[in-house]
């Protein structure tokens, strides 16, 4: 259910430009969510508001995709995907409350490793020795960042690890859905399920936002939808193996914003571990691309 990918130089340039812009916007969204947690808003309310305002990009997307049917014979799988995706985002935003932005993003990039591992039992795909080696090396990179047993270990970072795993489950389910469902339907149903699922828990911890705070909530929802659209554009104009390296520019943006706003400075081990994870993820993407197993709908490596 995906569009053919163009391969002309101009098209590839559009794809790379779109992925860089999309990742930058996603990082801004993450930084805003972290800021909102720091001024007293509960992560569940932040996620709820993200999906409330996220309805607007869905309406816009459906308007541009007029004629696309939202009928589905797989409502329970859409429900499960929505729960998984909003659960992953909740864990990610909750972890951001305690973990430096760049470090959280680096750990979040383990999602493609989990996706590859889960594709074997869930999708019955065959994963060769090269990709299993890349998965193992990537998880070593995660351990370099976490350093369990050392005084620098933050238990809260396990929320980010759990978020990456939950997100990977959602992406694996997406691979199954794309055999019969349109991207528009998946996007719409995931947002609607997340609104229904998150509203009761978000309202239970409601804190009334002021005008500026409401604008920041709107930014999280609207810009999150815009960034998602940009990444869809990116993967329609260039192969995943080309775009994938540029998704890791989020580590740069996260470091810059983390230092500028909270004076966070990732230590050398975070950069070493992030580099190992990035190389492993890019290699897995390359291997999956040449086998035609990387659907265009999979346009995020961390939850948003």
Describe the model.
By secondary structure, this protein is mostly helical. The chain has one domain (9-290). Helices cover 75% and strands 0% of the residues. It contains 12 helices and no strands. It has helices at 9-38, 43-64, 75-96, 101-108, 111-123, 129-146, 157-177, 183-204, 211-237, 240-247, 249-262, 268-290. α3 (75-96) packs across α8 (183-204) and α5 crosses α7. The radius of gyration is 18 Å and the shape is globular. It starts with 8 loop residues before the first helix and ends in a 14-residue tail after the last helix.
Summarize the structure.
It contains 12 helices and no strands. The protein has 304 residues and is mainly alpha-helical.
- Average per-residue pLDDT, rounded, comes to 87
Q: Tell me the helix content.
A: over 70%
Low-confidence stretches: 1-5
Beta-strand proportion: under 5%
- Major β-sheet profile: none
- Helix count equals 12
Shape: globular
Structural class: mainly alpha
Tags for this model:
globular, 304 residues
Write the layout of secondary structure elements.
Blueprint: H1 9-38, H2 43-64, H3 75-96, H4 101-108, H5 111-123, H6 129-146, H7 157-177, H8 183-204, H9 211-237, H10 240-247, H11 249-262, H12 268-290
Helix pairs in contact: 1-9, 1-10, 1-11, 2-3, 2-8, 2-9, 3-7, 3-8, 4-7, 4-11, 4-12, 5-6, 5-7, 6-12, 10-12
